[in-house]
Design goal:
Strand order of the largest sheet: 7-8-2-18
Shape: elongated
Helix content: 40-55%
Number of strands: 19
Radius of gyration: 34 Å
Number of helices: 15
Length: 535
């Protein structure tokens, strides 16, 4: 009897814990705890399908290799006539003079062993060579670009403050993003799609800017624009800058970016910190280019181009550009999260309104109540007193599922509600197996206590096997739902699996405990017990 009392106390303890977890979902002021998060289909929000331009990542790698080759050639005083990218991802180089050709081939063999030689021809003492990256390495760059883009977008959204976002890879180069409850969709899209490639470049002050704007851009230079919006008229003004193509420093060495307020103009700006290597490079760059203008370029847009007055040490810099506080905050988030390895395109966009979610919740709750009520009535009519105990276990089952979702801070979706409804239908399966076995024992003339023990012990194998097979199916659904981006399937699998586990607890532990308790009070009167069992 003492063992039975402890079981009853344990059941009520679990029930109280579930109520505590569920209360914040009903009213957050009741209890400061975790609550069930609603998915995109229930509370509205944004659904985006992004495609990473992986070819751009390969092009960027080729451009970096070209710059490295150019630096080696310049360092070793090797003259060349042509060095550029052609036909997508091929590198064309032309050198004149056997001495320079020999030196270049030494550099190629030592520093660029991974490059593949596509063609090589000699015309007198002129070497023409085409090289590129092997196909295997190209595919690896594309895969890493998608993986890095996924992590970068996840970091940005985490700092943006969206509750329970769903971000996962879909196929080879697509990323699926679901942002429940998001209101400012335009701002979210701008933050997600921002490449955030920070570069420091010198202005080309030796050539004429007006000629470059007309199309006569000198070799080794480029024209980029600074864009400013007049806060009064909201008109956009573009200012051209003639910059040297060579990037002196990038945001790869960035350690922090935060918003601060300029005390002189009372305007927000972004303060950035470099690591030790970046700080040394920044100090060297500013020291070598005093009185020259250094442009701060983000995603090919010039934010500012101040004159370097003196060598700047300490590894700190600032980005100004007449920002609003929100623009400065989003820029700092993008810089802290890191640059995307390649641009991303929004190939699919859907905005789900909260009215659809409210309607889904209402209909889901109605179907849950109707289904639950029918199950409750069936158990009472068919199994009478035992059915009442099974119905109590069913109510506890629903309460524990809600508490479990809140405790794990799971995201409840419409398919998740469907999983709960299916769980309600399955919740009494185990009890029916036990009750039918108990009826057989009572008809055979056994005592009630013996019938109860025989019913649970002999039905246990069937209950265990059926629930394990269901859990295996849930695991398969969850795996394929995660791998192939089927979020609806995954939500259904989570709630169904949680319901199956709780079903085993309520059907075996709770029902058995209260049947012992109730029928123990009634004693061993076979006729009355047969009536309560529905015989």
């Amino acid at each position: 009897m003492s063992n039975l009392s402890w079981r009853v106390l344990a059941v009520f303890g679990v029930m109280i814990a579930a109520i505590i977890y569920v209360l914040p979902t009903i009213n957050p002021s009741f209890w400061p705890h975790k609550k069930i998060n609603l998915g995109l289909d229930l509370q509205g929000g944004m659904h985006l399908a992004l495609e990473v331009e992986t070819d751009k990542a390969v092009e960027g790698t080729i451009e970096r290799i070209i710059q490295e080759i150019r630096d080696f050639l310049r360092k070793d005083h090797i003259r060349y006539t042509t060095l550029n990218r052609i036909e997508g991802n091929r590198i064309l180089i032309k050198l004149k003079g056997q001495q320079y050709i020999d030196e270049f081939e030494k550099i190629l063999d030592k520093e660029f062993k991974n490059l593949r030689i596509l063609s090589r021809s000699m015309d007198g003492d002129v070497l023409t060579m085409q090289i590129d990256l092997p196909d295997k390495e190209t595919e690896q760059i594309k895969k890493l670009a998608t993986d890095q883009a996924l992590e970068t977008i996840r970091n940005r959204i985490d700092q943006f403050g969206v509750s329970e976002p769903d971000i996962r890879r879909q196929g080879e180069k697509r990323i699926l993003v679901q942002l429940p409850g998001i209101k400012d969709t335009k701002r979210a899209k701008a933050l997600i799609g921002k490449t955030a490639l920070l570069e420091f470049k010198l202005l080309d002050e030796t050539h004429d800017l007006s000629d470059a704007v007309k199309g006569n851009v000198p070799p080794g230079s480029e024209v980029l624009y600074g864009i400013k919006v007049d806060p009064t008229t909201h008109r956009t003004y573009k200012t051209p800058y003639l910059l040297k193509k060579r990037t002196l420093l990038t945001g790869a060495n960035l350690t922090d970016a935060r918003v601060q307020i300029d005390s002189q103009y009372n305007e927000p700006y972004v303060s950035i910190d470099f690591d030790k290597k970046g700080g040394r490079d920044f100090e060297r760059i500013t020291g070598e280019n005093v009185k020259k203008r250094l442009a701060i370029v983000l995603d090919n847009k010039v934010y500012s181009a101040p004159v370097i007055q003196e060598k700047i040490s300490g590894g700190k810099a600032r980005i100004t550009g007449h920002f609003t506080t929100e623009e400065a905050r989003d820029l700092a988030i993008a810089l802290r999260a890191g640059a995307l390895p390649a641009p991303v395109d929004i190939v699919e966009e859907r905005t789900v309104g909260p009215s659809l979610g409210t309607d889904s919740i209402r209909k889901g709750l109605i179907s849950m109540c109707v289904g639950g009520l029918l199950v409750v009535l069936f158990m009472i009519v068919y199994y009478r007193g035992s059915g009442l105990i099974a119905d109590f276990a069913l109510v506890l089952n629903i309460l524990l599922i809600a508490g479990g979702l809140a405790g794990f801070q799971a995201t409840l979706t419409l398919p998740g509600i469907a999983g709960i409804i299916l769980t309600i239908g399955m919740a009494v399966d185990a009890n029916i197996l036990v009750f039918e076995r108990m009826k057989e024992e009572l008809r055979a003339g056994r005592s009630l206590s013996a019938a109860i023990e025989a019913g649970f012990s002999r039905a246990w194998t069937s209950i265990r096997d059926s629930n394990i097979s269901t859990l295996i199916t849930c695991g398969i659904l969850f795996y394929f739902g995660s791998t192939f981006g089927a979020g609806a399937v995954r939500g259904f699998a989570i709630t169904l699996a949680l319901g199956v586990v709780i079903n085993m607890f309520t059907a075996i532990i709770v029902t058995r405990t209260f049947m012992r308790l109730v029928f123990g009070w009634l004693g061993e009167k076979v006729e009355s017990n047969k009536f309560l069992m529905g015989i």
